[in-house]
Amino acid sequence: MDNWYWDLSVVNRAGQDRTVRRESGMKMKRHSSVSEDIEFIFTPLVVLELAKDTNDKAIEWFTQRIKEKKHLGGAHLKIKPMDDQAGNSQVYLLGASWRRLLVGAEALGLVKEYQDGSMRAFTYQNKEDYKYFSGDSYDFLTMAERQYIIKRELENLRAIDETMVPGHPQAKLYPGKSIIRRLQTSGLLLQLYPLHNKIELEKLSSIWYKRFHVALQPLNDIDKYFGQNIALYFAFLEYFTIALFPMALIGVPYYIFAWEDYDKYIIFATFNLLWSTIVLEVWKRWCAKLSYNWGTLLMKRKFEEPRPGFHGQLGLNPATGRKEPTYPNYKRQLRIYLISVPFVCLSIYISIFVMMIYFLMEDLARVYNNEVQSHFSSILIFCPSIFYAVVIEVMNRIYKYAAEWLTSWENHRLESSYQNHLVLKVLVFNFINCFASLFYIAFVLQDMKLLRQNLAALLITSQILNQFMESVLPYWLQKHRIRRIKKKLHITSIEKLPLADQIQMQGEMGQYLGTFDDYLELFQQFGFVSLFSCVYPLAAILAVLNNITEVYSDALKMCSVFQRPFSEPVADIGVWLIAFETMGIISVMTNCALIGISPQIKDLFHTNGIELVLLIVAIEHALLALKFILALAISDIPSDIRTKVAKMEFESLEAFKRKQIKEADESMEMEEQLEKTWEGKKKI
Amino acid sequence: MDNWYWDLSVVNRAGQDRTVRRESGMKMKRHSSVSEDIEFIFTPLVVLELAKDTNDKAIEWFTQRIKEKKHLGGAHLKIKPMDDQAGNSQVYLLGASWRRLLVGAEALGLVKEYQDGSMRAFTYQNKEDYKYFSGDSYDFLTMAERQYIIKRELENLRAIDETMVPGHPQAKLYPGKSIIRRLQTSGLLLQLYPLHNKIELEKLSSIWYKRFHVALQPLNDIDKYFGQNIALYFAFLEYFTIALFPMALIGVPYYIFAWEDYDKYIIFATFNLLWSTIVLEVWKRWCAKLSYNWGTLLMKRKFEEPRPGFHGQLGLNPATGRKEPTYPNYKRQLRIYLISVPFVCLSIYISIFVMMIYFLMEDLARVYNNEVQSHFSSILIFCPSIFYAVVIEVMNRIYKYAAEWLTSWENHRLESSYQNHLVLKVLVFNFINCFASLFYIAFVLQDMKLLRQNLAALLITSQILNQFMESVLPYWLQKHRIRRIKKKLHITSIEKLPLADQIQMQGEMGQYLGTFDDYLELFQQFGFVSLFSCVYPLAAILAVLNNITEVYSDALKMCSVFQRPFSEPVADIGVWLIAFETMGIISVMTNCALIGISPQIKDLFHTNGIELVLLIVAIEHALLALKFILALAISDIPSDIRTKVAKMEFESLEAFKRKQIKEADESMEMEEQLEKTWEGKKKI
Q: Among A295, A327, B424, B671, which is most buried by a count of CB atoms within 10 Å?
């Protein structure tokens, strides 16, 4: 049994309390330092899985490079092989000393809380001045941060003068190439994922979702365990749900009393539109507050490396001077405009074609119902809607795979550019696919009853399907797998599994593919709630109910269905905010138009249709203008955080100035003295 | 005669060539260092005028503080009194050694061209690595930069433990209060302005405006002499004029062939709208290019001090920890919403009332013309338009004074906030005051002929009035004054005036109050050109002609009518870009509406008015969407500048990282070594 392995099991048993754990670690260290070196407190943080057929030379070289000191071009991490391996791969565990992690935290520009309560970029030399820092404590950095540091250090491990991975001539290297990325693309690196921590996970899930209680989510704990991107998603989900509450409450009387007066609907729609604007603006403030406290608001943007899949002829990056693949921009543009754009158009055409089939079926079902008038036929009349909703979801999923493939084929250099193109492709299609039939019913058929029925069918079906596909199905598969493992190993609880088996189990779990699908789901929901809000006020209630269960099922998914994901320090929800804002603008138009075509309003203006249209257009422009003014008037960052940031900036500026004045004064005087001496000599 | 004074007159005589000037300075210095100290090459840069009744103690204290070294809390500048003074004030000349100026350049974060052609923040210690730097040369910093440095150093001269200006108990001071600002607010400091340089000015004006020639303006020279804010205004004026060329060219055939077909006007309007969007987007790129080369794009935003007029109870600034006046925000909001907003509304009401009077007069004139049909009456018919145009300009000017007073009374803490409120107030009123009558004619009266006539009258009258008020009148007054001075001193040319008289003359010149009015004029012009472009294509030609003379008259104004202004490092035209973009959006709406109400289009759709309105609205939305997409698609900063900036950022990041790795590695190893020793001791 390896010493580090023993350490981990002790730690796991030592249990609940972090302080206990740290103290036990300390005691152990001091006690055992008599016979062993400092390395024994190795705590595995990240799992690295290499292909079985990896050459021994490659492994030796790779582990050597990982262990090497930073100034010798290594990553200065610790790596240990797992001994008892059954599968067809080689598993390694990665860790680092706490000092190495602190240095890494500085290199990545992590921001931590300072003694005076402000957030500052961490520096190793002033480590003692940060709050919560105490001696050789691991807890100063959250586990998510430690794992993120290891991941980034691995990615920054670059080839020096190697031309290939030893023993694998097909895996070419050149100076400056990230080794881990080459191993990934050449298929030698199978998996790289952070380890779960049983105790922490248990603690988190018990306060998060394991018992039903009315409380806000433990966002700070989620941030500590999963990192900022996941925590921000759950914060947004929670915030959005709470923001829907007023809409839902106001919607109730409309449903109960079956209010159909259009003056009431106008009030509802106007309230809805202004509310949605304010909600998004206030979210920016809330998000700034969260990301300030989590340290990402002040984190400097890192220099973006080419994404792993990017390929092309080797050239020089004009900014970094490093060798890297280059790909001419015009070729990418050609691919986008000649292939991707036509593909998106074709997909939209197909989606609209399917919609027309649905309307045909809808007609058939209605005719059949009118003829037969049976119990069966009255159920049958709902079938086309539900069937169409299922088809929409299926098409969305198929399209997304195609979009991912296409965007990857477009060969974008940066991950951010890839993401933007992917999000744009998916959003445009999803918008049309989900809402085209509603637009058709609303503005071509002008059948408000059918619109309401269809909206309800689409909303409910898509919510049920999503919950099932995203959480219930994976959870069931996971349960099944655990049962199989239990049977195989003849045990009753997986809690007491030895570490090696636990790691093997985590390795077999699915990979969490990011928050894209989760945000997309919320985006669709926002569309259902806001686009036609004035004909179906109940939508908000359904959305609230869905989101409450969504919190639980997403939490379950994160904690026990998927592999733990690496944290990503982000300061906001990025492109999704723009997507939500765009939806808000479109919903102003649709709601105004809906009110304009409503029979009640039309009756009011029956003598002069043009006046009505002009009035509606004027109202729409006024609402849009109001939206923009509101967005401008509400500051994106709360004033207390702005003051804190300004204070820090001012202090560092002042410190810099003082240093500058001193240096410049000194060198100025020295130079002037020299000159005078020179003049004096000349005089003589 | 003072030695410094003699030096300047030598320099002035030495004449045209900078090199000559520097060499003569060098020779003189070396030659005369035998008998005199290093200070004799004092070149006056800035003039400071104190009130005649300033206490001698105050003057002594103030000059002492100005001369004091930086680390002793002074400004470390040079100050000399002017001897032969006639007026009722005391005039001082300020300068600084070239070393002091270089240190100041570093402190302000000025950005200069590096050896490798990139732009970098200047540092005194690496001064030799910057392009164009040579020995003790003054020319490395432009004169505008040198004067800006002196101004900023003066503003940053702060009270240490003084409680008042000596001898002036009413001028209270507290630690950290800017001395110069207190002198300003207590009326002791009458003027502070940079000196003109006869030779440079002569050179600049000869290539800029003194001879008529077809060429672009010498923007880099303007930047060097007047600084970035003035240079950017002239760059924008030039760019905007050139951008209007295509519009003007296309407008010509419409005027010549009297095209009235609305299909042609639709083409013209659509082209106009897209053109205006692209023009503003391309301006951002051009502006980024200019401000990169002038060093302001990369300049860090400085910490904003409270504006001079800001007053309130003494409190602590939470960000800087310095004492400064504080004023509760709610009081400011009350002033804004209870006084300023009603005032703006009242002004708008009056403006509209005046407009109604104009329409009454217009009617009367027409009726009279129809009755009398004389030569006189046909001239009379143009009078109301012209008279109204004059009244509009007068109201604009009166309103602006009121707005300035009100905004100042609102007591904004920051200059930027003051400017934003002022610009908003002025723009809203100006927009309604200038264009309300046009909107009324276009959409209420729907009289296209009257609209065209009115548009022409307003545009031409406002342009003539502006040129007269802004340039011709001040120039004439200045000429008059110079003639008076010549008579008084019995000389024929002011070129040969002694320095003291030159300075006195500059002191009597008016103060240039910033680019506000100039941008406002362009903004109005943009409105006239774009809002109703489809009924009066000739507007663009008139605007082009006006702008060509505007360049000349503005240049004249800058060079010989007003005091030289301090330069201000700005990277863009700020809030004006937003104003122009908003105007662009509004003009999409007006042009679409104009096309919609045109008789020809109405005839096409005479059976179905609603369809026409819906079509127009759809086109408007599509055009607005296209505008946004274009604005997103065109990158604001050209890619070559982005690469340069990225390269610099990457290099400084890498340098920082290398330093960090080295330091951290060292201290880590040291700490580990220590720990091992400690463990070893324990073992023993």
A: A295
Which amino acid makes up residue B622?
A: A
Taking only the tens place, the pLDDT of each residue in B117-152 is 888 888 888 888 888 887 666 678 888 999 999 999
Q: pLDDT above 70 covers what percent of chain B?
A: 90
Burial pattern A494-516, b for ≥16 Cβ within 10 A else e, equals: eeebebebbbbbbbebeebeebe
Please list every residue in chain B whose beta carbon sits closer than 8 Å to the beta carbon of residue A34. 683
Interface of A with B in 639-678 (CB under 8 A): 643, 646-647, 649-650, 653, 657, 660-665, 667-668, 671-672, 675-676
Q: How many CB atoms lie within 10 A of CB B242?
A: 13
Exposure b/e, B395-408, CB count within 10 A at least 16 = b:
bbeebbeebbebbe
CB atoms within 10 A of CB A345: 12
Length of chain A: 684
**What ipTM goes with this model?**
0.81
Strand partners, B325: B314
The pLDDT tens digits of the residues spanning A207-231 come to: 888 776 777 889 999 999 999 999 9
Please provide the distance, in angstroms rounded to a whole number, between the alpha carbons at the two ends of chain B.
84
Residues with Cβ within 8 Å of B308's Cβ and at least 6 positions away in sequence, in order, are: B181, B184, B185
CA distance B75 to B69: 6
Residue A405 tokens read as 């493939």
A621: nearest CA partner in chain B: B589
A657·B107 Cβ contact <8 A: yes
Half-sphere exposure of B654 (CA within 13 A, CB side): 11
Does the structure show a pLDDT above 50 at B26? no
Residue A48 backbone dihedrals phi, psi, to 5 degrees: -125, 125
Return the amino acid letter for A617.
V
How far is the C-alpha of A80 from the C-alpha of B153, rounded, in Å?
60
Q: How far is CA A431 from CA A272, A344, A437, A518, B222, in A?
A: 20, 12, 11, 16, 52
The pLDDT of B269-295, averaged and rounded, is: 89
pLDDT tens string B564-584: 999 988 899 988 999 999 999
What is the chain B residue with the closest CA to A108? B657
Residue B46, helix vs strand vs coil: strand
Distance in angstroms (rounded) separating the CA atoms of residues A286 and A234: 13
Considering CB atoms only, which of B318, B668, B683 is closest to A34? B683
Contacts of residue B78, Cβ cutoff 8 Å, sequence gap at least 6: B39, B42, B67, B94, B95, B96, B97
Lowest mean pLDDT among A372-376, A488-492, B294-298: A488-492
B660 contact partners, CB below 8 Å, separation of at least 6:
A103, A106, A107, A124
Burial of A1 (0-12, 13-18, 19+ CB in 10 A): exposed
| Distance, CA of A31 to CA of A425 (rounded, Å) | 60
How far separated are the first and last CA of chain A, in Å rounded? 84
Suggest the residue from B71, B444, B602, B607 to mutate for an interface test with chain A (most A CBs closer than 10 A).
B71
Please tell me which residue of chain A has the smallest CA distance to B651.
A320
Q: Rounded CA gap, B453 and B458, in Å?
A: 9
Strand bridging mode A78-81 / A89-95: antiparallel
The residues, any chain, with a CB within 8 Å of residue A496's CB and separated by 6 or more, are: none
Residue-wise pLDDT for B522-545, tens only, equals: 999 999 988 887 788 888 889 999
Burial class (CB in 10 A: 0-12, 13-18, 19+), B420: middle
- Written as six digits, the tokens of B16 are 């045209």
User: A608-612, B36-40, B93-97, B334-338: which has the highest mean pLDDT?
Assistant: B334-338
SS (H, E, C) B284-324: HHHHHHHHHHCCCCCCCCCCCCECCCCCCEEEECCCCCCEE
